[in-house]
Amino acid sequence: MLNVAIKAARAAGAIINRAALDVEAVRVSQKQLNDFVTEVDVASERAIIETLLTAYPQHGILAEESGNEYGSKTSEFVWIIDPLDGTTNFIHGFPVYCVSIALAVRGKIEQAVVYDPTRNDLFTATKGRGAFLNERRIRVSKRTRMPECLISTGFPFRPGDNFQNYLSLMGDVMQRCAGLRRPGAAALDLAYVAAGYTDAFFETGLSIWDVAAGSLLVTEAGGLVGNFTGEADFLEQRECLAGNPRIYGQMVSIISKYSKFAPAGEKAALRQAGIDADNADAPVEDADAQAPEGSAEGQDSKD
């Protein structure tokens, strides 16, 4: 099954690389604000689905562009596909994007492929058998101190995203680490955690096809993956934290209060801190406006 997934990923990568030679000619449409899809996404997804269903016609498919339109609706084997993760990068010619394919068996991820066609980097994992980059075993980093760590993230870009909340979150992390990066392709971000290139990754608003393959790469490379509060059942919760075990624990202590699953008290304290910060930044008004009605200061100023 892993070999079939690799064949599918390489077929998609060939389509992407051909299109990248003249990216200006690629037709682009917009699903919603700042969320793009191209004819390359669609062609790449079609090539992946054809390859998988030719080998396993009874399997199910869950794909970013076509949903569960193809394959069996009742199979215990479901392929989870992102045909081009990092579309915004791709249409600008920024060479950070990938193909992501995972196989879930009875809801658990068992096979994973993340393929970077620009570098010909192939990340693979099978549950219980380790993670590999171009057939060489990879492990998460050994760093244990946050000030030495390089951490990746993704910025909120959809309407309704709480941008101010994310700025506070990033501020908390940036003050504690060596550097924060925003490459723009979550599946590749997770693969880089697995390879030890970065020490942790966090992002909200992610769909299951963004994180399914990358999450298995991380765990098979000795890392941990969960939501911001550290719970492992995160695949459909739209928030993801990954890292080597020591840094993962430290990241949970920093960002758990920003989780939608955080205790109510922590959320209230965070909101209050935001209000206090807003008040501190507010312009100082004149004495008349600040003085309570009927106060001595107010009377003096009126006199």
Features:
alpha+beta; 14 strands; 2 domains; Fructose-1,6-Bisphosphatase, Chain A, domain 1; five-stranded mixed β-sheet; disordered C terminus; 303 residues; D-Maltodextrin-Binding Protein, domain 2; 10 helices
What is the element layout, followed by pairings?
Layout: H1 2-20, E1 28-32, E2 35-38, H2 39-55, E3 60-63, E4 77-85, H3 87-91, E5 98-105, E6 108-116, E7 121-126, E8 131-133, E9 136-138, E10 150-153, H4 163-174, E11 179-181, H5 186-195, E12 200-204, H6 208-220, E13 224-226, E14 239-243, H7 245-255, H8 264-281, H9 287-290, H10 296-302
Parallel strand pairs: 3-4, 10-11, 10-12
Antiparallel strand pairs: 1-2, 4-5, 5-6, 6-7, 7-8, 8-9, 12-14, 13-14
Cofactor: Mg(2+)
Region (Disordered): 275-303
Protein name: Inositol-1-monophosphatase
Report a brief summary of the structure:
The chain is α+β, with helices and mostly antiparallel strands and 303 residues long. The protein has 10 helices and 14 strands.
CATH structural fold name of the largest domain: Fructose-1,6-Bisphosphatase, Chain A, domain 1
Largest sheet: 7 strands, mixed
Integer count of domains: 2
Portion in strands:
15-25%
Succession of helices and strands: HEEHEEHEEEEEEHEHEHEEHHHH
Which strand order does the major sheet show? 3-4-5-6-7-8-9
CATH architecture of the largest domain: 2-Layer Sandwich
Helix content estimate: 25-40%
CATH-level-4 superfamily name of the largest domain: Fructose-1,6-Bisphosphatase, subunit A, domain 1
Flag low-confidence runs. 277-303
Rough outline:
globular
Q: Roughly how many Å apart are the termini? A: 85 Å
Gyration radius from CA atoms, angstroms: 23 Å
Question: What's the number of extended β-strand segments?
Answer: 14
Mean pLDDT: 87
